[in-house]
Structures are given as structure tokens and as C-alpha cells.
Write a structure and sequence with these properties.
By secondary structure, the protein is an alpha/beta fold. The protein has one domain: Rossmann fold (3-Layer(aba) Sandwich), CATH 3.40.50. Helix content is 44%, strand content 17%. The protein is built from four helices and three strands. Strands 1-2-3 form a three-stranded parallel beta sheet. The radius of gyration is 15 Å and the shape is globular. The protein binds flavin mononucleotide. Flavin mononucleotide binds next to loops.
Length: 124
């Protein structure tokens, strides 16, 4: 993460959450919370499978933000083979849109301004 221009956090859904492997990784780096180490680094959150994306994405986004990352892209995608053609097309478009957002942020270094809530996490 230190050497990267941007980081993509990826996990399948296991029992309505990220995998224990990723959770171990997160716990290991708990000391980074509220530290500015990754300010100005873009991150993307990509959760695979299941219908519980939103909760899992929200959790992973919260972790990445608390480490100082700017989460510029996020999405949840089911197994494309399981989807109807319409939904598959929609998912692929969403995947392209979000990866492009991440790619552009890495390339240009332009990141959205932090929200008030983001700032409070580092200032209070
Ligand atoms: C222990 C376990 C728990 C899972 N729990 C869920 C779940 O809660 N929701 C879901 O949609 N899929 C669930 N799945 C399916 C996985 O998300 C899916 O198979 C995924 O492709 C596994 O990725 P992997 O092969 O990289 O482990 C679970 C799979 C395993 C092995």
C-alpha cells in the first residue's frame, strides 16, 4: 500500500461480510486509523457475489477512509454467469464506469474533497 499509486480492496462475500482473511489484514493495520498516512491516495472497493453488497461495501469504504484513503470508486458485482443478459450488461457497464473512475484518479491525481464527516474522523 505504501508503494502503490492507488489501492483496490477486493473481497467475495462470506456470510454477509468480507472474508476473515481480509478482516485479519484490516485488524493488523488498525493502528493506521485516524492517521494521515494514505491521504491523497485513491482507493476502490470491489465486493463480489451476493445481494448484501451495500453493507459490505459501506464497511470496507469506512475502513479505507479511516486509513486516509480517498475512496473514488466502489461496486458490488454478482457472478456474471448467473445473471440475466440485461443485468449482466448493466453490471459490466458499472464495472467499466467504476474502474475508469479509479484509473483516472490514479492517472491525474485529482481526488474529491473530503466530506465534513471525513474531516471529523481526523481532526477530533
Ligand atoms: C464460507 C462461505 C460463505 C459464503 N457466504 C456468502 C454470502 O453470505 N453471500 C453470498 O452471496 N455468497 C456467499 N458465498 C459465496 C461466495 O461469495 C462466492 O462463492 C465467491 O465466488 C467465493 O470467492 P472465492 O472463490 O474467491 O472464495 C460464500 C462462500 C463461502 C465459501
Amino acid at each position: 500500500m505504501d508503494a502503490a499509486d492507488g489501492v483496490i480492496f477486493v473481497s467475495p462475500v462470506y456470510m454477509y461480510h468480507i472474508t476473515s482473511l481480509l478482516k485479519n489484514f484490516i485488524d493488523h493495520f488498525a493502528y493506521l486509523v485516524h492517521r494521515p498516512k494514505y491521504f491523497k491516495k485513491p482507493a476502490m472497493v470491489f465486493i463480489h457475489r451476493g445481494g448484501m453488497f451495500n453493507e459490505v461495501i459501506t464497511y470496507m469504504e469506512r475502513v479505507a477512509k479511516s486509513w486516509g484513503f480517498s475512496v473514488v470508486a466502489k461496486l458490488g458485482i454478482a457472478d456474471l454467469d448467473d445473471l440475466t443478459p440485461n443485468y449482466r450488461e448493466k453490471s459490466i457497464k458499472e464495472l467499466q464506469r467504476e474502474t475508469e473512475k479509479f484509473y483516472n484518479a490514479v492517472k491525474t491525481g485529482k481526488l474529491p474533497s473530503p466530506t465534513l464527516t471525513d474531516l471529523i474522523g481526523f481532526r477530533v
